[in-house]
Design a protein that fits this description.
Chain A: GO terms for molecular function: acyltransferase activity, transferring groups other than amino-acyl groups. The complex is a heterodimer of chains A (381) and B (143). Chain A is α/β, with parallel strands linked by helices and 381 residues long. Helix content of chain A is 35%, strand content 19%. The longest helix of chain B has 5 residues, at 133-137. Chain B is 3% helix and 43% strand. Classes of the chains: A alpha/beta (381), B mainly beta (143). The structure holds zinc ion.
Chain lengths: 381, 143
């Protein structure tokens, strides 16, 4: 019989840490990753020797990168493995860590996202697939096509799409780990360079590097290691799905709808219960599509709800309080782990200037090339 | 002489391009680009995937003008998502003259020269433009 995460033994986030997301630099990935792990250990009050298993979310750096990084914490002989799932690599690494603790195979596991854009590869090319457009459709054009159709279907305007980047830049400006720290006006977001369709540069996430680490633990470990239970955040559910045949419905939105429905159902939570949501806003139009697909507002209503402040910190539900992929950044492997770090900070009430008052239930969402989707629901009891 | 740039995707030289798709004989789903190995919809093996020549005509589902591009095609150019009359939703390039095309418009393909070889041979690909009676009935107007 199938058993959802919520019915296995409880899993809690007990420590989070980040290396700021930044433009690609000469800093080795090993240094980025170790910085985030040390921060997570300090946050949890744990030593590296307490960690029993490591999952590294990474997609564009190198094969076999885990041990070269973790050895700097003291080679403890623990199992370690890279988890590659495109943009959802970090979310998938976190899911693996949660499942291992929930299943009772270990008491303390770590998910670390780390990446530098050194080896970006293309599965379509590897498969020898051809199409009529060759290299003419880069990611911004994929999302510009979605944006044009969204505006056609619902009468939304380019300014309403750009408003997503304005909100997320305000949030990112309050986040010391964000790659883009400047609050932007609508005029600045709409200013050239225009990349594809109505999407300008500030409506596309930046290319960057960084690291994020999240430590998860069982109740046993919290008791045995004397961890602060009042700061532990329960992982209520973990859902992961892949694309099926959707015909004209956009696959990222359809996949988001299915995966979020599953994650909320397994967590016993309604979309209206969510206080904070970190979602895959690599391009502005995505936030509008996904808040609708998640059921945070009715189809076609997202632009108006955004204008009305419903998705602001302090609004009905804070969407991407970290700044999201648009402002915090999207270094690929770290992104999904960083979302868990942000939601954890929010639910603990430790998000400082970005704090969404009274946050109790949060959701993280990443889609990845393939397409795949990974959603987690977290709650502070 | 006109030579298809990607002969696995479209047939050689008629006046108007036709696409080399395929169809699953088990579930009926039609694919373009043609799908090998097995059917995405039902999992039937490749023996069920039969070649099917598809008319390069359909309805525009979405559009994006690409302003900044690092590849070999000079920007700006316009990419369209087109629902072919045969079923598949495809992505293709619009002809430069098709700038007035909008979502919901009918479009069909004509040949565009990708590159001319030293011997004068022209490598061609299909690009889409607004369907018109004239384009369909005038033999060789775009060849
Ligand atoms: Zn089939």
């Amino acid at each position: 019989m199938r058993t959802p995460l919520a019915q296995l033994r409880p899993v809690h986030v007990v420590g989070v840490g980040l290396h700021p997301y930044q433009r690609p630099s000469g800093t080795p990935y090993t240094q980025l990753g170790v910085h985030s792990v040390r921060a997570a250990l300090t946050d949890a009050g744990l030593r590296w020797s307490d960690v029993e298993s490591a999952y590294t979310g990474t997609a564009v750096t190198s094969m076999a990168l885990s041990r070269l990084m973790y050895r700097h914490l003291g080679a403890s002989g623990i199992p370690m493995v890279q988890v590659e799932n495109a943009s959802a690599s970090g979310s998938s690494a976190f899911r693996q860590a949660c499942m291992e603790v929930a299943a009772g195979l270990c008491d303390v596991a770590i998910a670390v996202g780390v990446d530098k854009p050194l080896n970006v590869t293309d599965p379509q090319r590897a498969a020898g697939l051809q199409n009529l457009v060759g290299d003419r459709v880069a990611p911004p054009t994929h999302f510009a096509l979605l944006a044009a159709r969204y505006m056609h279907d619902y009468g939304a305007t380019p300014e309403q799409l750009a408003a997503v980047a304005v909100k997320n830049s305000r949030n990112g400006a309050l986040n010391p780990n964000a790659q883009r720290r400047e609050p932007r006006t609508i005029e600045e977001v709409l200013a050239p360079p225009q990349i594809s369709g109505t999407l300008t540069q500030l409506q596309c996430c930046p290319i960057g590097e960084g690291a994020a680490a999240v430590i998860v633990a069982s109740d046993d470990a919290i008791a045995r290691l004397g961890l602060d239970r009042t700061r532990a955040v329960r992982v209520l559910s973990s859902a992961a799905r892949s694309e099926t045949v959707y015909d004209l419905e956009n696959f990222d939105a359809a996949l988001t709808r299915e995966t979020t429905e599953q994650a909320l159902a397994e967590a016993g939570v309604e979309a209206t219960d969510l206080d904070v949501v970190e979602l895959h806003d690599a391009f502005t139009v995505e936030e509008l599509l996904y808040v609708e697909a998640m059921g945070l507002c009715k189809p076609g209503r997202a632009a108006t709800a955004l204008e009305d402040g419903e998705f602001e910190i302090g609004g009905r539900v804070a969407v991407s309080p970290s700044g999201g992929l648009l402002s915090m950044g999207h270094p690929i492997g770290p992104t999904g782990v960083g979302q868990v770090a942000e939601v954890t900070a929010q639910l603990r009430g430790e998000a400082g200037e970005r704090q969404h008052a009274g946050a109790r239930v949060g959701l993280t969402h990443m889609v990845g090339l393939g397409a795949v989707c990974v959603v987690h629901v977290l709650r502070k009891d | 002489m006109k030579i298809p740039d990607q002969s696995t995707l479209y047939e050689g030289i008629a006046d108007r391009p036709r696409l080399r798709g395929n169809a699953c004989s088990a579930c009926g789903r039609v694919y373009f680009p043609p799908l090998a190995i097995g059917c995405e919809k039902c999992g039937a093996s490749e023996t069920h995937l039969r070649p099917e020549s598809l008319a390069a005509s359909g309805t525009v589902y979405s559009l994006a003008q690409v302003h900044l591009h690092r590849g070999k095609t000079p920007a700006p150019f316009t990419i369209a998502e087109i629902q072919l009359d045969a079923g598949p939703l495809i992505r293709a390039t619009l002809a430069p003259a098709a700038a007035h095309v909008r979502i919901g418009d009918r479009v069909s393909a004509e040949w565009a020269v990708v590159r001319t070889e030293d011997n004068g041979d022209e490598l061609v690909e299909p690009v889409f433009t607004a369907s018109s009676t004239a384009a369909v009935t005038t033999n060789g107007a775009h060849s």
